[in-house]
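Ticket #4471: structure export looks truncated?
Reporter: QA, pipeline team
Priority: medium

Steps to reproduce: submit the single chain below to the structure queue and open the exported record.
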Amino acid sequence: MKQGVHPQYIETSVTCACGHKIETRATKPDIKIEICSQCHPFFTGKAKLMDTEGRVERFLNKYKKK
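Actual output as written to the record:
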């Protein structure tokens, strides 16, 4: 491999907007993200399903156990 072509692979900290920090390795010294697994609604169980046309209810009724 050629010398001086590849970027440095260094220790970095990934910081979420909620304040959660993750230590990892990357080619950038600091990475800032907007959402992580600690604050994402899907992973925290706070996700709400917006059903304005009743599709979910129709599906549940169609496949409801009798």
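Status: closed, not a bug. The export was complete when the record was re-opened. Leaving a note from the reviewer for reference: Residues 9 and 59 are 49 Å apart (CA to CA).
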